[in-house]
């Protein structure tokens, strides 16, 4: 611990001399852009004067709410193709007092990878072109190095084409960027068997606030712990990740069963809450509630014949039959879950989930099953104007065995499921009805979900739960705690201490970045 403190003080001193100094002869933007042009090929730099600046900026925006005339946009987007470009961008930014935001797949629900809530001069480092994936089975251990700009669909496809009995646990939407997903966790259909994406990361290459490129050994275990789910953009720019691959059988089984209120969905849902987290690890049954029905969607790592006896004994109310089952390869299941068909090449389409909508998302965790009587009231919310949907992701299984402090993601033992509240609207609408629906519904749900803190998932970013306050050019720990405890529980303080060690003057910051906590605090 003494060593830890000394390191923090030494780093703070070394940073204070070179941090954000602005040459007096030029504006920060001029100096920054000049510096970039000296170090990075010009065809990779798009300034506001570039004719295709807008096309590049919007290329991976997934929430049109953040592409308006009043959105605070970057002064440039740098579409890096090499780690050295990332290093150059950080050094130019530091030298000229211009901050950077980093974008991999652009799916951030609050758009923080490419826009700012406040008036601010910043550049975007866009990693979409940095997307190599190298699968290896050296010494019999299957693993891959994957660049942050790859999508999880590309990762799934590349792994399975290498060996159809290998896979990786990550989300259900194939266009999500690896960089943003892993830096916040990454939950999907293999969650109960193998945990989050970030649980399976074994090394990484990160450019820190000095512009140095560090691997796990060079960055040390505290920083390596922090970037695996602890809001990676607060600590640097992760260029690539080394991940352990996981085993799947040659055939898996999926089903989608819809049950309306009239068909007894409340009985099934009430029981599902404690059955789903206690099922064998190789079964996940998640739920989508919309309108007056719930859809039970499952992935089982095995054949239908093996799945049926378990489902019949554990959740007979769902009445799963052979006719409900579809057997396929794991890769096909990744396509099926998202597109409803087995067309696996669609997983490579980086715009298959385009920027077509305006969205607001919130999240919760449930540790005590919601009583049957409450579900009736919950369903009444889906009859209101502006109603969206909710997705319930069961935990338990392997997730429940991981200690809360093993990685920054704390929602482990005792969590029954995560709730994601989603509401959409179109461009012709001001979105007020939809936004007030999600906010009021979230308010109503407060009585049934975790509190003190009311837990939330950092990958389902929600600025309503709190934003940083910057004092003397540094985000404050006390204000950060308001939202930070919800995402990270007791891990928030450790994240802030790591931030204080590696970026004490808060170069890498956004509205919900980890604030630095110096040991003298
Ligand atoms: P984006 O590029 O916007 O980055 C998100 C955040 O990570 C930003 O703060 C950014 O600065 C930071 N960041 C990005 N790259 C970084 C890097 N290389 N180094 C450091 N920081 C970096 N989640 C889930 O767990 N399971 C799911 O099934 C889904 N499904 C889903 C569907 C859809 C349609 C959307 C829009 C989102 C999801 N998500 C999800 C949420 C998703 O995991 C979350 O938004 C990720 O952060 C997105 O990562 P991107 O790289 O795409 O986003």
TrEMBL record:
Gene3D superfamilies: 3.30.465.10, 3.40.462.20, Uridine Diphospho-n-acetylenolpyruvylglucosamine Reductase, domain 2. Residues 70-248 form the FAD-binding PCMH-type domain. Keywords: FAD, Flavoprotein, Glycoprotein, Signal. Residues 1-26 form the signal peptide. It comes from the Eukaryota. GO terms for molecular function: FAD binding; oxidoreductase activity. SUPFAM superfamilies: FAD-binding/transporter-associated domain-like (SSF56176). Its cofactor is FAD. InterPro entries: BBE, FAD-bd_PCMH, FAD-bd_PCMH-like_sf, FAD-bd_PCMH_sub1, FAD-bd_PCMH_sub2, Oxid_FAD_bind_N. Belongs to the oxygen-dependent FAD-linked oxidoreductase family. PANTHER family: OS08G0158400 PROTEIN. This is FAD-binding PCMH-type domain-containing protein. It comes from Eragrostis curvula.
